[in-house]
Structure formats: structure tokens, C-alpha cells
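ARCHIVE CARD
Drawer: 12
Card no.: 0347
Subject: one protein chain, sequence and derived structure
Cross-reference: see card 0346
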Amino acid sequence: MNYSYKFLLKDLSIGREIEFKYNNNVYGLLNSSQGWVFVCNNTKESSYYDDVYEFIELLDKTLIQGKTIKQIFDNNEINDSDLTIY
């Protein structure tokens, strides 16, 4: 599957949550009762956001090991088996 950042943003905008494994860490873009949050290995890495579009703005600036999430997804660095969309 070629799951690009564009697809990721579309899925988030309709309320889907995304988990992915990258370099032996598990990341989550999750929507809890407190709002949208970015987690790594079940540890909260961001504030909670009520608005998914504000959360997406955060993701545009978030770096994982020196790369943006956009770079990671658009360069197909996530294996299909390491990606779960809820």
C-alpha cells in the first residue's frame, strides 16, 4: 500500500486514528475523551487538541528522529504491517 501523508490527513479529518511503528517505536495519532494527542510508546508527546485541524498543524511541525511525519509517510518508510488505521 502507498499510504501517503495526504491520505493520513484525510483519515484524521474524518475522525480516524492512526498507529504506526517507525524505528522500533510505536506512534499514535489518537482521539481520546480529552481530544487529539500524539503519543510515542504509550507516552503522551503533545498537548490535547479539541480541533483536529489544530492537531494537524502540530503534526506538520512534529519531528520524529529528525524527519517530519510527512517525509516519513511520503517516502514510504512505514511498512503496511506497521500501520493500523482505526
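Annotation on reverse: The chain has a mean pLDDT of 95. The radius of gyration is 12 Å.
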